[in-house]
Amino acid sequence: MRSDGPCPVVYDSAEECARQRVIISTLEELLAIQEQVAAKQSAELQSTVDLLHEMYKAMPEALTVVAPNGLISAVNEATLSLLGYKEHELIGQPARVVFGSADSLNFAEVEARQQLLRMEKTYVSKMGAEIPVLFSAKMLRPTGSRVSPGVICIALDLRERKKLEIELRQAQKLEAIGQLAAGIAHEINTPSQYVGDNTAFLKESWASLVPLFDTMRQMRKAAGNGGLSQVILEEFDRRWEAADIEYLQAEVPKAIDQSLDGIQRVTKIVRAMKEFSHPGSEEKQAVDINKAIETTVTVARNEWKYVAEVETLLERNLPPVPCHAGEFNQVILNLLVNSAHAIEQVVGDGSKGKGKITIRTRRDGDGVEMSISDTGAGIPVEAQPRMFEPFFTTKPVGKGTGQGLALAHNTIVKQHGGKIWFETTPCKGTTFFIRLPLSGPTSEASC
Predict the structure, then answer these.
(1) Which residue from 161, 186, 138, 170 is spatially nearest to 31, judged by alpha carbons?
(2) Measured in whole angstroms, how far is the alpha carbon of residue 261 from the centre of its chain?
(3) Which positions ≥6 away from 372 have C-beta within 8 Å?
(4) Quick one: 124 and 230 in the same domain?
(5) Judging by beta carbons within 10 Å of its beta carbon (0-12, 13-18, 19+), is residue 316 exposed, middle or buried?
(6) Are 149 and 209 part of one and the same domain?
(7) Is residue 7 part of a domain?
(8) Quick one: which of 243, 276, 295, 344 is 20 to 30 A from 226 by CA?
(9) Are 11 and 158 in contact (CB under 8 A)?
(10) Which residue segment(s) compose the domain that 58 sits in?
(11) Last residue of one domain, picked from the residues 250, 278, 306
């Protein structure tokens, strides 16, 4: 598998860009018509203006026009509904009432752009609640006019999408856990089995010691009365031999150590499962990348252990990285399983030798870089340009859905402002690289 896993929610689609370009273009025409109305007092033109006004009042996106002096000059019904204001409470107010900060709308930056300024932004409601929105802004330039009436701002409420995205991410993790369930059960069963076997051995050994303890009590009582009979001594020797004390002295400590080791292994797997499946937070958090990698390697062990050895070369004392741990774990899981499948193409079931997967982390300037290398089949030359395309896969039918690398690209690049790329040599292996910034990504884009 070089690509697998569910596709995420994507906001900045071409359709949304096209829709917002049409909105702004039409509004510019509206302003031009208004100028004509003022000049000609045309009833037909006035009717067109009234119609367009009604259209903008009814549009589902929140529309706000900010004049060059920084004051709000127009809003539509969607803006009022989103923020909980009356129209007269916003008109003439500073833009920071909506945007939450005085410098949140940079006129010079908007004016310098030929395309829409697009980013995820936070609006502030009348009650002070923060509302995530997909924000677009462009300087209005009516046809034939040299003076701009300000900046048009369009906002799409992302609260429901954010909620659905969180639910989707959790569903993806639970799906991955479901796919790994059989392997995880096997991983837990093995140490549990020898914990059970050793416990049964200790129970049996204890049963053989009980008669010996009884004889020892009789010997102590006889010694207190002035002498030991030959019968008691012979009974002690018989029970000592039956208990095989020398054997127990050698084996009982081993059984205890093995049982403790088994319990620790089960505890590690359960802890890794708990961390991997945790819903996480809507906001990015400071994440220990090394720990996240170790957790995912543990959870996916049954996927790679038959065909590969995994080596982790993790740079110590890496700074925490702001990211969504759940999404990062999902990316590592996809890449790790991809590597195992690529190696399987070369070594088969691993009975005649295994391949190798190497995971590295290192500090890279103002970011952290991670790589995962395998000694697998590599990626064919003709497939390389398409590796991050949704639904493209080099796997046999039924082995992969072709969504994993598309998900990884969206997660790393769009959600975290990072980079993901690969180097490959057909028949020799592949290395995927991920770089995440130590500061938050800039979400600004244009369309």
Answers:
(1) 138
(2) 31
(3) 332, 335, 336, 339, 357, 358, 359, 360, 431, 432
(4) no
(5) exposed
(6) no
(7) no
(8) 243
(9) yes
(10) 14-157
(11) 278
Low-confidence spans in the chain with pLDDT less than 50: 1-12, 42-49, 51, 102-103, 397-398, 401-402, 441-447
Domain identity same for 192 and 286: no
Give me the residue label for tokens 């009432």.
97
Residues 138 and 179 grouped into a single domain: no
pLDDT of residue 435: 94
Alpha carbons 152 and 315: distance in angstroms, whole number: 48
Is position 3 within any domain? no
Q: What is the CATH number of the domain that holds 392?
A: 3.30.565.10
- The count of domains in the chain is 3
Whether the Cβ atoms of residue 135 and residue 99 lie closer than 8 Å to each other: no
Question: Which residues are registered as beta bridge partners of 424?
Answer: 430
Closest CA to 438 of 366, 340, 379: 366
- Count of helix runs (H) and strand runs (E) in the chain: 13, 12
pTM of the model: 0.50
Q: How far is CA 320 from CA 275, 283, 286, 364, 377, in A?
A: 16, 15, 5, 13, 34
**Contacts made by residues 160-164, CB under 8 angstroms, sequence distance 24+:** 161/9, 161/11, 162/132, 162/282, 164/9
- 187-243 tens-digit pLDDT: 677 777 778 888 888 888 888 787 877 777 777 777 766 676 777 777 778 878 887
Same domain, 389 and 424: yes
Write phi, then psi, for 421 (nearest 5 degrees): -155, 175
For 76, the token pair is 């539509």
pLDDT at 430: 94
Distance CA 446, CA 117 (A): 5
Judged by DSSP in three states, 285 sits in strand
Tell me if 447 is assigned to some domain.
no
Tokens for 73, please give them. 């000059």
Cα torsion for 268, 274, 277, 283, to the nearest 10°? Answer: -110
DSSP for residue 382: G
> 36: domain CATH number?
3.30.450.20
**What pLDDT shows up at residue 285?**
82
Radius of gyration of the chain (CA): 34
| Same domain assignment for residues 273 and 393 | no
- CA-CA distances (angstroms) from residue 210 to 78, 218, 219, 388? 83, 13, 14, 68
